[in-house]
Amino acid sequence: MSDKQQIFVRRRIEAVAGLLALGLVLLLVRAVDLQWLQADYLTSLAEKQRYRQFTAVAPRGSILDSKNRTLAESVETPSIAAMADEVPAERMADLARALGLPSKKVEGKLKKRHGFVWLARQVPPMVAEKVMALNIPGVRMEKEWRRYHPLGPETGHLLGFVGIDGKGLEGAELSWNSVLTGESGIRQVRRDARGHSLPDGSWLREPAPGKSIKLTIDASIQSVAYAALADGVRQQNAKGGSVVVLRPKDGAILAMANWPGYNPNSFRNFKPGQWRNRAVTDVFEPGSTMKPFSVAAALTSGKWKPDSIIYCEKGAMQVADYTIKDDHPEGWLDLTGIIVKSSNIGVAKLALDIGPEPLHEMLRKAGFGQRSRMGLGGESPGIVLPTERWGPVETANIAFGQGIAVTPLQLAAAFSVLANEGLYVAPRLLADDMQAAQNASHRVMQASVARQVMSMLEYATSADGTGSKAVPVGYRVAGKTGTAQKPDERGRYSRDKYTAVFAGVAPVDDPQLVIVVVVDEPQKSMYGGQVAAPIFRQVAESALPYLGVPAEIKNHGPWQAMEVAAEAPAFEAESTYGMSMREVRRFAASRGLRLHVHGSGWVTRQKPANVAALNSSESLEVWLDE
Amino acid sequence: MASLLKPWLLVPVLAGLLSAGQIWVSHLRYELSLETQRLNTEKQDALGQASKLRLELANMTRPERLRQLAQQKLGMAPPKPEQVVNP
After folding, report:
1. Do residues A240 and A278 lie in contact, with contact meaning Cβ atoms separated by under 8 Å?
2. Which value does ipTM take for this structure?
3. What residues 12-71 of chain B have any CB closer than 8 A to a CB of chain A?
4. Are residues A146 and A122 in contact, defined by beta-carbon separation less than 8 angstroms?
């Protein structure tokens, strides 16, 4: 081999060796690139291929009533979804048929997007089974939670509803959404070469179900209140109404119903205006139901006593440029008479005498003009003007419930002050807050004043009072009717639109319930005593026996008769309570009083309350237990 | 026979035993995972069933439904005052 050839061979060997070396260097560079520079990215890609993560939606907590009955519950429900680009076009018609949807709608959904798309959410299990049996590529079944409210319209306004994504949108579902909502979990599973999940998955985050909440509501009383309200509103061809039932001792809201109701299980079929819980969001002028608080303010001032008498101007009184009128013209009335006859002029005179400040203070302490903060959203504070804007006309008007706006809940809370012997206990809807509610109590008036007003309110429900139709057989009720004109579009009082109200406490001797009934625009009668009082009675006569409060059985045994007979001689007594017919006649004759007797048996009521102050020839009215 | 038992044979035999043990443990783990998954599914089904039954119970015992059944089917009426006594 010549030198030239040898050089050529060497060069070729060197070139090959050089290429090999270059190849090795490139491999090294690539190895460094893959193992070092791109290590994290490639590892994550590999992990993604090997592992898969699922989100497990946690169920929403239940809502229970005070006796642990279910008011709202979440149930697992199938939903149908698809990876839009994986569904064959020729199977879309089958899919639509199984779903019970128009083909165009399904095609539209699948063609609009490329990735994940919901086809039908929260479908019945039968439909889901039918769809999955078709085995269409790209179509899959997901599990979601659907909210059900078994009491339907009865608790519609109170509980509200939940959107398709499990978020509370109205009522208690919205107010306590953060407590009720669960925290979804993340589960990681390994996949085999075919992409199937291996069983040894692990939770990256365990799902935490939402917490249940317990309300003070009693489903039975809620149902009774709703049915009674529905009956009453239908009978009157009224626009609507609200009922609130409170337990005065601890402020527990036992029922809160509105009519017309709506079914929260199909809330989309109703207009948003129908979703509103009007017992807390809407205000109305309370009319005469405000009078007990005006009388209480007068008694608290010390200037007036229960037996003080006021001249009621025979039905018309001028205040500045405004004439106050009474439906039933009266002359002289004591404070009980003012409440029983519902005299606007009587309370107006009381308010003008004590001045705006004491009345405003009484209303403020009783909870008017401020939210109760019992937890439900959208609560209205009502309207109570500041005292700077109270002229004589405003002071007189507010005393009988005009120029002031309250919610049914506020009125119930205020009447519970009278039932609680002057103590305001904030209303509460959440059972766990009961202790907090009792801590949030404050004194509004002296116990003696509250008892005196309660006694007057009991007369208002007697046979001669405006609220006689509110009394269930065998129970004593203290309550007040109210009829208020509604403002029209021009801000003036309408001549044909009224709100009829009844607010009361039962039974009088140991108050268990405060019930407020508001009927909006009744057509057959405008009076609270005709419209709202019967609804009150219907609720009370069902709820009281249910709560274990028996009706008073009126058969006096011989032992009781002996006790009455052993009392002091009638003519020396300061009260006629417990007297027999003969004794009360002797008493009246000995004092020269004009006696009006109702019933037979023993005296259970008398009017006026203070008979010792009666002079000869004045009248005494007594009611005997039959 | 004794000539076959060489000390160096111990190494592959132990390795084989350890491998077999490892495979057995993996199998056990897999079986247990399957069992756990099955039990978890059963638990979820039971919870779902309980939730549905609670709802069904609430629906069947709705006061309004009971009232209607009592009045229309059983001919019952609300009690009169003297028919209710404090328990």
Report:
1. yes
2. 0.76
3. 29-30, 33-34, 36-37, 48, 51-52, 54-55, 57-59, 61-64, 67
4. yes
Extract the tokens encoding A554: 């009126």
Among candidate residues A544, A474, A493, the one with its CA nearest the CA of residue A515: A544
Percent of chain A with pLDDT over 70: 94
Please indicate, yes or no, if residue B46 is contained in any of the structural domains. Answer: yes
Q: Which residue has tokens 């003080």? A: A308
Is the Cβ–Cβ distance between A478 and A454 less than 8 Å? Answer: yes
Give yes or no for B87 touching A (CB within 8 A): yes
pLDDT, tens only, A276-334: 999 999 999 999 999 999 999 999 999 999 888 889 888 889 888 889 998 888 888 89
* Range A368-371 contact pairs with CB under 8 angstroms and sequence separation of 24 or more: A368/A404, A368/A406, A368/A410, A368/A414
Three-class secondary structure of residue A265 per DSSP: helix
Q: Spell out a b/e string for A503-520, using b for 16 or more CB atoms within 10 Å of the CB, else e.
A: bbbbbbeebbbbbbbbbb
Integer Cα distance of B31 and A531 in angstroms = 72
CB A525 within 8 A of CB A537: no
Q: Is residue B42 in a domain?
A: yes
For chain A, which ranges sit under pLDDT 70?
1, 194-197, 199-200, 434-439, 553-573, 626
| Chain B residues within 8 A of A154 when measuring between CB atoms | 62, 64
| Pairing label, strands A63-64, A213-214 | parallel
- Give me the domain span that covers residue B70: 33-74
Check residue A123 and give left, alpha or beta (phi > 0: left; psi -120 to 50: alpha). beta
Residues of B within 8 A of A475 (CB-CB) are 81
CB A347 within 8 Å of CB A400: yes
Phi, then psi, of A167 in degrees rounded to 5: -100, 135
Report helix, strand or coil for A144: strand
**Which residue in A288, A294, A342, A542 is the catalytic one?**
A288
Provide the shortest C-alpha distance from residue B18 to chain A (in Å): 23
Tell me the C-alpha distance between A47 and A76, whole Å.
31
What domains lie within chain A, and their CATH numbers?
54-214 (3.90.1310.10), 219-546 (3.40.710.10), 558-625 (3.30.10.20)
CB A99 within 8 A of CB A123: yes
- Whether residue B26 has pLDDT greater than 60: yes
Domain count, chain B: 1
The rounded distance, in Å, linking the Cα atoms of A71 and A73 is: 7
Which whole-number Å values give the CA distances from A420 to A297, A455, A571, in the listed order? 16, 13, 35
Mention every residue, 6+ apart, whose C-beta is less than 8 A from residue A559.
none
- Output DSSP code: residue A249: T
